[in-house]
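Give me the fold.
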Amino acid sequence: TIPRARTKVRQTVRLKVLPTARRKAKKTANHRMRKKAKASSMHEKLITATIGYDKGDPKRIQHFIKVHSFAKLIGVCEGLPDDAMKVLETAAVLHDIGIHEGERLYGRNDGQIQQELGPGIAAQIMDAVGGYDDVKERVMYLIAHHHTYTGIDSKELQILIEADFIVNLYEDGASPVAVKSAYESIFVTESGKRVLKDCFGIK
């Protein structure tokens, strides 16, 4: 009699626990989906605002759109968590935002001037769009270092650099030798290497 009673108790516990666990898992999944949907909507607003800032410069606009797409792809393939993806995608959209101001003030738009002027302008755009207070400082750091290829301190900065290289190598008409050199000296993530190899047909 006692073993049967224990068996019934165990079965009752299982029946109660399983639905509860499923509800919790479903709630967690729904929360993640809502969070991703919110982030996606924010990024759409950010992209629209950045297009407005770069108005009349289709080259710059198409450049950051492509860098964002490659960065997002590599980040997802590398399994970056949601917070890191928000940093990465935001920085990818805004990474070259200092170019116009550099040209206006100094007549130059090289990587160094982008790193110096970009973070402050990026902060203004993030503030105007709203919703980026949690990542603003980190995004500014990535922008201030996206042309610095030593001392890379995070996977999101590495991926931003790789995505920018993928686009720049194509837009600059880089030679196969230059592409192979970038592959060997700059690229670290397996997903970034695969994308670069497939884009340029590296053996």
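The mean pLDDT is 88.
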